[in-house]
Amino acid sequence: MDLFVINRYRDTNEDIDWVDRESKNLERLKQRIEERRKAHVDHKQSNFITLKEIKTINEEKKTHENDLKNIDESHEQEGVSENATKSLNINKKQKPLNEFKVLGVNEFEKKIKVQRVLPYWLSHPHIVSTNLQNLSCPVDKQDWLHSTLKSTLLSEGVSHLFPVQEQVIPFILKQHEQPSPLWPHDVCVSAPTGSGKTLSFVLPIIQILINDIGNYIKALIVLPVQELAIQVAKVFKKYCLKTRLKVALLTGSTPLQQEQQQIVRYTESAGWVSEVDIIVCTAGRLVEHIQNTPGFSLKCLKILVIDEADRIMDHIQNDWLYHLERHIKLENELISGKVPSLNWNNVTGHKAPPHKLLFSATLSQDPEKLEQWGLFQPKLFSAAPVDFEDENDIRKYTTPAELTEQFVTCTAENKPLILYHFLVEQKWDKVLCFTNAAQIAHRLTVLLNIWGNGSLKVAELSAALDRSTRENVLKKFTQSEINVLIGTDALARGIDITDCTYVISYDPPRNIKTYIHRVGRTGRAGRKGHAITILLPNQMNIFMDLIKSGGKPELPQIEISPEIFDNLSDSYHHAIKQTKDQIYNENNSKIQKSIELKRGFKSKAQKRKYDGTKNK
Ligand SMILES: Nc1ncnc2c1ncn2[C@@H]1O[C@H](COP(=O)(O)OP(=O)(O)OP(=O)(O)O)[C@@H](O)[C@H]1O
């Protein structure tokens, strides 16, 4: 039975009942509150010393200093030993008693806020002007620019370089002119949308490689999505036309095998050689080639560009950075993640790592995020001056000076009416409209086409469309055959649509970066642009906070008179009925098609089964 006896620990103060204990706790709590209040009052009073008190303190200080001086002099005369003078000096420096912390005493002082300290290269960027109106860098007068590039630029109608190009291109070129053991400084560029960042890396890369005749991949440009890769590859091909440099585009839109045949070749004498000099790719496809293409080598890579670097940083696809760094591994060091220490052994014993160039309109200036790129003594070119007074400055982005931004509020039912009012009644042309879902984009397209009744040409621009259809839609938009493009954020970044005058956010953007990239589809390359965000009343505060977080001033509001809604109400209800019918029919035909497809599979399978049994 002893086995089942449990000896419990009993508190020595078991007699104190719980009510008593609680009241004691309450008492203690009250006492602490009182102490805190007293400490607060004392602290306040100590700040209000009267003038008289300050006078007496100063007088006391003076007499104290005179005493010490006299003692010093007398000791000097008497030839007092050095040690003794030292001890006196220590006494001189001794703090008054009240400066020591007394243990066990509660002090309720507000802690001083720790100031954010940025690394020097982030807090002292090269400031890039955003003024695209008064250009001061004529292409034909730049001695440092290769004559072939000059002639291509002029034939493309580029007579002056934009400020970001004027500053970044010579800097990159200079880095590659340094004598052998010196490694180039890596470069980060954070400049507004449409400010010409693409040419800022295309031109120097071509100029650096123009006389390099080796059969290996020399430059790699990584982009987050196919559309951007296609766009950048087009620019490279255009500017490489008069050179012997070859450019390859590697994205998921072409079969892998086809790309493999295009980029590598096996030779009896030299083994695998590269057929191209510059590769423009998406991160996902790059990993596929690293893993599956025999002879694909980036070991001699000279330049690595990461465009829309913050987007790539946020969504590291297929762990591409890890695979790339493993592939290029320099003896013991990785190209990123760890910066090789700068000593003579490293510099002379190893080949320089690829020169890294990072670009974005919303490049994070967060040192922790930038750390993962393992940049070598980087230099930042930024359009946003660093303001040390403003702690939110670390997230500041700039938009083009030619861009006008506004917002408008309405109820959910009135959103299509406002859009129609802008497009038809105000006759806004060349409009790009963003929604938060592909389904909304489709419905809106159908509605506006029905409602416009021929006066409006609206098309969908979604990532679901195949490449040629999308290019066709964009071409029609440029040629004014389509007035309005409706899409989602999949196409918000980097896409360079010529002559887009208005950007309407039908649904508000989810974060500040999306907002900056959306509105950045207009007001590009020094042209005027307007961006309007439609908000429901309950979305106002969130949107204002979002704008503030980007370090932007408050946006003006467009007022819409209620009569406008009343006038449009009848035609809207008529159009919405027809839209519902059309979407219902579309869905039905989709269901019908999928049923037929399934039936087709089934009957084929049955036929195979029947043939199989017949042959047995
Ligand atoms: N020096 C120049 N003179 C005239 N037009 C230029 C010049 N440089 C670039 N452009 C044009 O400006 C437009 C925007 O350039 P680009 O696409 O490089 O901008 P970006 O800064 O990369 O924008 P985003 O951040 O949106 O990607 C392009 O149509 C390009 O052809």
TrEMBL record:
Pfam families: DEAD, Helicase_C. The keyword DNA repair does not apply. Keywords: ATP-binding, Helicase, Hydrolase, Nucleotide-binding, RNA-binding. The keyword RNA-binding applies. Residues 65-78 have a biased composition (Basic and acidic residues). Its EC number is 3.6.4.13. It is an enzyme of class 3 (hydrolase). Residues 418-572 form the Helicase C-terminal domain. Signal peptide: none annotated. Residues 65-87, 595-616 are annotated as: Disordered. Belongs to the DEAD box helicase family. The Q motif is unique to and characteristic of the DEAD box family of RNA helicases and controls ATP binding and hydrolysis. This is ATP-dependent RNA helicase. It comes from Galleria mellonella (Greater wax moth).
